[in-house]
Design goal:
- The chain is α+β, with helices and mostly antiparallel strands.
- It folds into 2 domains: about 30 residues; about 150 residues, Alpha-D-Glucose-1,6-Bisphosphate, Chain A, domain 4 (2-Layer Sandwich).
- It contains 4 helices and 9 strands, in the order ββαβααββββββα.
- A hairpin with a 1-residue loop joins strand 7 and strand 8.
- The longest helix has about 35 residues.
- The N terminus is likely disordered.
Length: about 180
């Protein structure tokens, strides 16, 4: 099929069997979920940080990448079962919208949700109070569902990673400004 000579690969023929293997490998890569983690420290008590993160409807006020948050379904008094539609503006020329159902709440330390729509997966905020400071970690394990993102994700993976970092940094800076006013 091909011959490897030093660092060069010469393809003798691009048969359908070879193309099928390439397609299978690309599909195998796409089946894997993307795992992201963001971590920050804040000069604010855990209760103040919790209040801001546990009220997503207010995120557009301080997080520039959050275009809109709307309530789809109410949950219980702790916040479990609530479903919200989140619309995001990214650093790249596309927008993203997905629903997020809150599946776990342990005030004031954990909020976990299940995303579905243009993203599918799980997101979890973990807060740890350290005296007058709060350490926050966000874990995001998702896969994209937009057809163009799926087709190009094996090429655009580093750009998607960068984009996620920009969105999270905008949120971090916005939260710092918001907490400074409290």
């Amino acid at each position: 099929m091909y011959k490897r000579t030093e660092q060069w690969i010469y393809y003798r023929d691009l048969s359908s069997a070879w193309l099928d293997r390439v397609r299978w490998r690309a599909c195998a890569l796409l089946r894997h979920r993307r795992r992201r983690a963001a971590s920050s420290g804040y000069d604010a008590p855990v209760e103040d940080v919790w209040r801001e993160l546990s009220t997503p409807e207010a995120w557009p006020e301080w997080w520039p990448s959050v275009k809109r948050v709307s309530l789809v379904r109410e949950g219980d008094e702790r916040g479990v079962g609530w479903v919200r539609r989140l619309e995001w503006v990214t650093a790249l020329p596309y927008e993203l919208a997905f629903d997020m159902e809150t599946v776990r709440v342990e005030a004031p330390s954990i909020i976990e949700g299940r995303a579905f729509g243009e993203l599918e997966g799980v997101g979890r905020w973990t807060l740890l109070g350290e005296g007058p400071r709060c350490h926050v970690r966000y874990d995001w394990i998702v896969k994209v569902t937009k057809p163009w993102m799926i087709r190009l994700s094996f090429i655009l993976k580093p750009i998607f990673r960068w984009n996620h970092g920009v969105v999270m940094e905008r949120g971090r800076r916005g939260l710092v400004r918001r907490l400074a006013r409290v």
